[in-house]
Amino acid sequence: xxxxxxxxxxxxxxxxxxxxxxxxxxxxxxxxxxxxxxxxxxxxxxxxxxxxxxxxxxxxxxxxxxxxxxxxxxxxxxxxxxxxxxxxxxxxxxxxxxxxxxxxxxxxxxxxxxxxxxxxxxxxxxxxxxxxxxxxxxx
Length: 139
Prior knowledge:
By secondary structure, this protein is mainly alpha-helical. It has helices at residues 3-37, 43-63, 92-104, 130-138, and strands at residues 80-83, 89-91, 126-128.
């Protein structure tokens, strides 16, 4: 097998992983919206949905290496923010502080994860990762 074939396959797998992550983020957001707005008549359905989500989270965590440590502070994250461009996570206060500091210097912020090619981390690319936040709180 050639190196280019391996590279192509790896690239395809990374794209699939990112797409699955995006899909799970959308499903989680919808489920959280439903849970927040639903009345007591839907409690049984919501409980089943919550159990299913938690089971999926456990499988997803088992299948991937999850690091709850912020790459900026080297401390466990409290409010993990996911970068939609590179899928790396940072604690909200740390990354927002770094973005503001770099903006004041009129410079771009490079993703602090070693080896990442994302050279421009922006606030608009960050979303609160509710699933990871729950995983951290369950620990």
